[in-house]
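User: My advisor, Dr. K., asked me to get a structural model of this assembly before our group meeting. I'm new to this, so sorry if the format is off. These are the inputs:
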Amino acid sequence: MREKATTLYIGPQHPGITGNMMIRLKVEGDTIVKAITEVGYLHRSFEKLAERRNWLQAFTLMCRFCVPEPDPVEETYSRAVELLEGRSVPDRAKFLRVLVLELARISSQLLWYGGQGASLGLYTIGQWSVGDRNYILDLFEELTGARVYHMYIWPGGVRRDMPEGFEKRVLKTMDYLEGRLDEYEALMFDNAIFKKRTQGIAIIDKEKAIEWGVVGPPLRGCGIKSDIRIDDPYEVYEHLDFEIPVYEGGDIWARALVRRDEIRQSIRIVRQVIKEMPGGSYYNKVPNPQKWTIQKGDAYARTEAVRGEIGFYVVSDGSNHPRRAHMRGAAYVHGITLLEDILKGANVADVSSIMNSLGTCPPEIER
Amino acid sequence: MKENKVKLAKYLKEHFPAIIEKDYNYNRIDFSINRELVPSVLRLLKEESGYIHLSHISCVDWLEEEEFELVFIIWSPVDKIKILIHTRIDRNNPVMDNIDKIWRQANTYEREIKEMYGIEFTGLEAADEFLLEDWNGMPPMRRDFDTAAYASNKYYNRPGREDAMDVREEIARHSGEEIPDFAKKYSR
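Assistant: The format is fine. Below is the predicted structure of the whole assembly, which you can bring to the meeting.
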């Protein structure tokens, strides 16, 4: 006898959901036949607020667009404003920016380890990785004065230089984390539960990935080599030596392997940046923020964040505040159209695992 | 890159003589065109020129000019060029063609722009509400939306809560200092 479809609501408050959003599922037994995402629980209207603030005040809102990964957003905004104004940035600032972006990438990947593990009932991974992430937050606290929202990368450069002996502490943390990666390998990637619950689950087809606008690790997990750091290089990435991990398969497992390898690449980049860090100024001072006007025009900057492409479209009408500062986040595509498509036919128990693997971030959708 | 841009501009002008180009000294080129032709331009670029990735759709409210500007940002992984397609639509009758048949994810952008600016996308199939709930008033991202009036109508100050006062007046009262002239215009 055919089972009757039932409607299930997951979220907006749910331990498996990566933020505050709801998914309305139509299920037959354990199988999802239809999924509709509902957002609207986190709308803070940062973009509207930015229109009433000057260029520098608006920047303080930008890092709040995505909680696990604030740095790429402030870097993208700053770079878009610099592109719009034609302002140059000192080389040292560019290196410091890359240092912060890569540390943020490692920290975000470690947080993702925890989320992905916990979504499958493997809580030890999260306890380890969130603990290890704290060592990076310590570095951030020392460099920027804050642990999560740094407001460090601002138009014109960065807010302050490295404290004395900071390089050594960064390298020491990198050595420690590199040693830990083998333990994560054993705990997570050699784990039968993890393999069984991720291999062959939520497969994204290669052709469909392009068609659906998939970016970041989910795209590289489909065997497509695409990374903005290489394709549309910014800051000093074109001078750095690193690889783009690509895996075939398109399932959660492939996405996890991509993320795992990216941590090693980020450590490699951090070491290079520290080694090649030039001297000199770290900030080209902007005018008095109240009087800082930017000529009429628009600019679009984009960055490879952990979840994928982040973009900022900024428009100036010649005044001292943005006419429009519009962010594009990876979750905007992954969290709605892609998630709705990919959940069809999936098992109810895999919903949070799938969301984690796609890097769904509701605050980025609503802004 | 320069060669590709020239070739691209020539190719588009052959198909759409009315298109206006604007080149930049980095990997970006802009085109402006009437709104009716935008879907055809996008489809041509996607299917014939390899601009397969829709990076962003944005909307800017030019209140003074009574127009909305829609911007479609697309990217080619082969040419490694960003194209920004600009179009202006009448602010008093904001209608745009839906492009979610070209890129499925455009559906989400269109839903948000519809809600936040009140632009109707012809043939857009999506649930009515995106971010806002039971919203009947003016779309909130429009420039003439009065945020202060909305906040004072919607929310109330808790009775007896003195910190609802203007913070500058409060500081002046405590310290006995004058409010600087430039700050007075912001006072309530």
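One thing worth pointing out at the meeting: Residues 159-188 of chain B form one domain.

User: Perfect, thanks a lot.
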